[in-house]
Write a structure and sequence with these properties.
The chain contains no helices and 19 strands. By secondary structure, it is mainly beta. It folds into 2 domains: 109 residues, Jelly Rolls, CATH 2.60.120.10; 78 residues, Jelly Rolls. The strands form 5 sheets. The protein has a 5-stranded antiparallel beta sheet with strand order 8-5-1-3-10, with no helix packed on it. The protein has a 5-stranded antiparallel beta sheet with strand order 2-11-18-13-16, with no helix packed on it.
Length: 234
């Protein structure tokens, strides 16, 4: 869920020594991953699961509410007070909060610099998977939202696939997303769905960092990302 005047996103991550006397070259910046919010789901096979992203724009002091089905709020800009289970938490830009299925969170946009005129709240669905997330198996799963930063001029990583599934939201920069030998540019606001069997690569050919959110579900105790293609017998 994304608020603009106050902004949220609801989604329902060794340098080698130089030889001789040559001057050493600094190691390239590493990929950074910051887990924003995470939880564990005891089962994911009792009902079909879908990925969904919704944008909400709240004006200062405006109120709204959200009923999530195991969703995570991410504050894009501004500040929002979230009341959940009798407790209030302030989300500032870059913060996140898990909302369990069946819970209702009350949202209040915090008035920091009130404009003289404001538009009414706007709610817009950004994305929904057309079919249920495939290949989910019995047992517990990890659900998390991770903010990932790829440094500028980073070559594409090796082909890999998800052990569960993921939905990406590009915050800034432009990434190079390769699937089936075809590479496409993915810029700010792009939403990219990665189901289990999709073999893909990501790189950042640009001159600025690529920053994106990864809303990820993977089997408990299994890495979220696995090399190459899935085994044929899975």
């Amino acid at each position: 869920m994304q608020f603009r005047t106050t902004g949220l996103l609801l989604l329902g991550a060794i340098a080698l020594p130089a030889s001789g006397t040559a001057q050493s070259t600094p190691a390239p910046p590493a990929i950074t991953r910051t887990v924003i919010a995470a939880t564990k789901l005891p089962t994911v096979t009792d009902v079909p699961l879908y990925f969904k992203a919704v944008s909400i724009t709240l004006q200062p002091d405006e109120r709204s509410s959200v009923l999530a089905a195991n969703g995570i709020l991410y504050q894009m800009s501004g500040s929002t007070e979230v009341a959940l289970d009798g407790e209030a938490k302030m989300l500032n830009a870059g913060d996140g909060l898990f909302i369990a299925g069946g819970k209702t969170a009350a949202l209040t946009a915090v008035d920091l610099n009130r404009p003289t005129e404001t538009a009414p709240a706007a709610v817009r669905e950004l994305y929904r998977t057309a079919t249920p997330i495939p290949d989910l198996k019995p047992g517990g799963y990890d659900l998390n939202l991770t903010r990932v930063t790829f440094p500028a001029q980073m070559p594409s990583n090796l082909p890999h696939h998800r052990s569960g599934a993921a939905l990406y939201y590009i915050i800034s920069g432009t990434g190079a997303n390769t699937v089936d030998g075809k590479t496409e540019a993915r810029g700010p606001g792009s939403l990219i769905y990665e189901p289990y069997a999709l073999v893909h690569q990501w790189g950042n050919p640009g001159n600025e960092p690529l920053i994106f959110l990864a809303f990820n579900i993977n089997p408990e105790g299994v890495a979220a990302v696995l090399p190459g293609a899935p085994a044929k017998n899975q």
